[in-house]
Description:
By secondary structure, chain A is an alpha+beta fold. Chain A has helices spanning 2-10, 20-30, 47-66, 80-83, 87-93, 119-129, 174-194, 241-246, 270-279, 308-319, 334-343, 354-358, 380-405, 413-422, 435-445; strands spanning 34-36, 43-45, 70-71, 77-79, 98-103, 106-114, 138-147, 161-171, 201-204, 216-223, 229-239, 249-251, 257-259, 261-268, 296-300, 325-327, 348-352, 361-366, 372-376, 407-409, 426-431, 448-453, 472-477. Chain A is globular and about 80 Å long. Strand 5 (98-103) of chain A pairs antiparallel with strand 5 of chain B, so a sheet runs across the interface.
Amino acid sequence: MADKENKKKVEAITSMDVDFAQWYTDVVKKAELIDYTSVKGCMVIKPAGYAIWELIQSQLDARFKATGVENVYLPMFIPESLLQKEKDHVEGFAPEVAWVTHGGLNPLQERLCVRPTSETLFCDFYKNDIQSYRDLPKVYNQWCSVVRWEKETRPFLRSREFLWQEGHTAHASAEDAEARTIQMLNVYADFCEEVLAMPVIKGRKTDKEKFAGAEATYTIEALMHDGKALQSGTSHNFGDGFAKAFGIQFTDKDNTLKYVHQTSWGMTTRLIGAIIMVHGDDNGLVLPPLVAPTQVMIIPIAQKKEGVLEKAEELKQRLGRVCRVKVDDSDKSPGWKFSEQEMRGIPLRVEIGPKDIEANKCIICRRDNGEKVEVSLNQLEATVEQLLVQVQKDMFERAKAHREANTSVAMNLEELEQILETRPGFVKAMWCGDQTCEDSIKEKYAATSRCMPFEQEQISDTCVCCGKPAKKMVYWGRAY
Amino acid sequence: MADKENKKKVEAITSMDVDFAQWYTDVVKKAELIDYTSVKGCMVIKPAGYAIWELIQSQLDARFKATGVENVYLPMFIPESLLQKEKDHVEGFAPEVAWVTHGGLNPLQERLCVRPTSETLFCDFYKNDIQSYRDLPKVYNQWCSVVRWEKETRPFLRSREFLWQEGHTAHASAEDAEARTIQMLNVYADFCEEVLAMPVIKGRKTDKEKFAGAEATYTIEALMHDGKALQSGTSHNFGDGFAKAFGIQFTDKDNTLKYVHQTSWGMTTRLIGAIIMVHGDDNGLVLPPLVAPTQVMIIPIAQKKEGVLEKAEELKQRLGRVCRVKVDDSDKSPGWKFSEQEMRGIPLRVEIGPKDIEANKCIICRRDNGEKVEVSLNQLEATVEQLLVQVQKDMFERAKAHREANTSVAMNLEELEQILETRPGFVKAMWCGDQTCEDSIKEKYAATSRCMPFEQEQISDTCVCCGKPAKKMVYWGRAY
């Protein structure tokens, strides 16, 4: 039984270079992050997956609170009439919501949709909660699940129900709203780079790609290992559009009635998909230490020999003061245990056997690059702490180098076509600002404008598509 | 404007003795715990309310994890056919679920209900996830929201959507399942008593009151200030009933196929209602320090005088190392600020003015009993730490004394009737074990059997209702 189980677990997964999509599916299953369910398009997030989400949540939430965010909880249902109040918004979401039509045994008087996002509910709430400039700003956030009836689904990346946070704020002025929109985008970018070890491009979405109902949408875009982009977080400035649709007014200091200015911003369990696709390799998941539920796995060698398990337990006690650590004392062979620890992406492995104990040392092996070091047990805690910091840093640098190696520049349509057909990754190219060119590139090459980055470069003077004078440099790419 | 707002906030609330239900509604609104919404029967949990829930969540979750619980997330939808697999369960829940019939623009092939509880989903998941005795036990929990289409709703106590945790476990033997059921009931009881300062009776529900599909339901019952009971947490042992309905089998050590034994256990945002009704008074909310988002409010006196606000800020910095503390430096009068701090239930108030500063002292006032002490600023941190412990302890003792003063004993039907008509609280009385007697008491006096307590007493030999030989002592009472 044990052997059969082990074999299943460490069975070779599809190589990323052979079939990246299949590799991804293999990893989410074999690292035991998710399971499929009887509910089409919905998934079970298993303990190994959910523990990553808990680490994302707690660290992101602390960053939110440091900027004055307060958490709340609003209903999961939206009455149809409420969803319809803002024209662009309802057009964007109505085709993909789930409708509740019966409560208990009775039909409802009005259909309710399961929230795909909660702008309309927050507006309905703010309408009564905000009276005076003294009530502003409101900087609220909620952690919840939302539902979007997607046709094609993939674990973490696109599912009919997913977990996220959605921040919704209201401000006295357009300037305050814009400042908060950018502030939260920066929180997202710093979180991705510092915690997920994932470099991102910050920029603004084109009008074609912006959120339904937003005046401006800002985004952080990351590059996956296969050269496709992943939108990893968005922050929207709504101006006073929703406020006018819902009648959210306040009495300002000058005693006149004004509309509030609003923002919203969200990040989702899709980030777990990003972690997999940025850092993973042919042996499975590779977790950045800051989001690794287990940071160090101690694997005893010849564990039946006297004193080995006791020593492993002693090291666990010592390391428990500086990191999240476990001992694998199951009756599997060390080889199987190594494969499992690798598949699960645990950043460091400590190997300890009778000879090591005799020599007062152990072996530490890094998951990210396979490097092994021999360490005196006297230096154990210090070395592990230092290695965890180093792994986190190296993973970021490696991902950044990968992105840079996979970012091209196109001066004209010929170059753009040649790059998109032969090289994965981002393409930087100039754009005239006309949606016709954007549509044309999307139609021809299945590539979309990812963003107009904050860090603009003057690559050329003319639009890559039509040759007219260029207004903006845009990152283009195929995306998840 | 400021005056109008303040007035609204500290306006006298209805006295508890005049109208307890109205007092409750006033408190949840004026302490800004909730707001009503356009979605009938659903509420907004505002920052002051949600912050209490976050403190409940983090402390309860830590206690779960200490017993080996792992968190997961399952879909919010249940296909109708899945809900129907266990007969008693579907009968219990089908009349009160919300049904999703359309996804996007298309009708669904099969209706989905929004989970009222997730036994059926966990069973469907465990069916594939459990193969061998090595996979057991599974001790999973999820934090989520659930929906029950209630007709009458009240904030926190009964709403169509509420937040909770639901633990679902699977075990190799009946003994293991029973042990886990009791273990989690004890976690709940300890949490209520130690963290919420709320004494509870632990016991078993009668068959009439048990959970739909359970073999045994255990409960903790608390007594509210008005003498009504509140079921505060339940833990169910399902035996192998669900396992047989869903086909959840494992290969045991002896190489035979066996059914697993399952449990589930849950606690909800209803606990916030319990905190309000156990500890609150005519000045508003009274929060136990361990679930108070702000534990100490510093209120400067004559704050426009030189050095006062600076001193208040300095004290906040110092106290920030030992507790959750804020300064109220708004432009309201100290009197208004006192009322607000009291309404919000903040356990301690520190008053500091020019004369105090000169004398190197401050006043600390306890929310729970109004006691004021003068404290040397040299002793500030130590005194606050000690007072927070004392308040937590005293609140528990006071609630326990209240429960004891409101627990009666009835030897026969006449006494039971007299007590239920004249005195609020629990009534202890013997029961023959026959549901007819239970039905009869419920029908005549609107009182239900709360539980058969673990701590049995032999009050008499005969059933309080029918006079036949008694089997169990039962706590009876009217309940929320």
